[in-house]
Structures are given as C-alpha cells and as structure tokens.
Amino acid sequence: MYIILAIIVLIALYAVFTYNGLVRARQVAEEAWSGIDVQLKRRADLIPNLVETVKGYAGHENQTLREVVEARSRAQAVPAGDVAGRAVAEGVLGQALGRLMVVSEAYPDLKANVGFVELQQSLETTENEIQMSRRYYNGAARDLNVKVESFPNNLLAGPFGFTKRAFFEITNEADRAVPSVKF
Q1: Residues near 149 by beta carbon (within 8 Å), at least 6 away in sequence
Q2: Angle at which helices 114-149 and 83-104 pack, to 10 degrees?
Q3: Integer Cα distance of 56 and 40 in angstroms
Q4: What is the pLDDT of residue 36?
Q5: What does the alpha-carbon distance between residue 39 and residue 26 come to, in Å, rounded to a whole number?
Q6: Considering the entire predicted model, what is its pTM?
Q7: Is the pLDDT assigned to residue 96 strictly greater than 70?
Q8: Residue 105 sits in a domain of what CATH number?
Q9: Is residue 139 pLDDT above 90, yes or no?
Q10: Does residue 101 belong to any structural domain of this protein?
Q11: The domain containing residue 127 runs over which residues?
Q12: Domain count, the chain
C-alpha cells in the first residue's frame, strides 16, 4: 500500500515539476519575443525621422524613401504572434534601410548633418539590440522546443497545449545579401 502511494506521489511530483518547467520555458520565450518587439518598435519609430532628414537633402531619391516607408508599414502590420511573417517583413525593412544608408553616402552635406548622424547612430545601436534580442529569443525558443519535444515531457506538453515556437530567422536568401544601389 505504501509503495503504491509513494509511486502515485512521485508521479504527481514529476507532473508538477514538468508542467512548471514548461510554463517557465514558455514565459521566457514570450519575454524574449517581447524584447524583440520593443527593439523593432524602436527602429520603426526612428525611421520616419530618418526618412524626413534624408528627404530634406535628397528629395529626388523618392523611390528609396518610399520603399523604406512601405516596408515599415508592412512590418508593423504583421500580427503579433506571427514570428515567421515578422521575420520576413523585418528582413525586407532591413534591406530598404540598407539601401537608404547607401544612398546617404552620396550626399556629403547629409552625412555631416548632426541630426542625421545621431539618427544613424541610434539606428545602428537599435540594430545591434535587435540582433541580441533575436539571439536571446531563439535560445529561449530552442529551450522551450526541446522541453516540448523531449520524452517524457511531451506526454504532458501536448495535452496542456504547449507547442513549439518558431525561430526568428531570415528565410529569404535575398534578405541576407548586401543591398546594391546603382546611380
């Protein structure tokens, strides 16, 4: 009788610890995604100021400026939980920003403008923060995915609604390429 009771207690303790570990991993992944979201919002907030500054010096570069604004709008329109969709949209936005920075190289007065330099430095800092946030999120997603898929955790993960998280990664090879701008 005591042996059966001990086995039941051990099984219950195992279930509680496993469930709590899965909850903890899910919360860390959600926190990590929130970190990415904050940095992406910061970048999106910097873009209008950057575009307006460039527009003052290089107004005839309308196509590049329009691409940046449109890419920003598309990135912000992606639903909050769509990690893969957000990664694609942010990759397109990154490419457009890269082309904008290349265009700015052709305007010495713009490169000397204090406001532009500060915006460019803020954007660079934000890009570094996004990169670190992506790494943190992907690590948290990996840890959650391992817990969800590992035996015997998977016996509890499925019935309690724990699912794998998508990694925040660039899937389009063109997004990895250096932007080419021709004058």
Answers
A1: 157, 164
A2: 160
A3: 25
A4: 87
A5: 20
A6: 0.70
A7: yes
A8: 1.20.1440.20
A9: yes
A10: yes
A11: 2-176
A12: 1
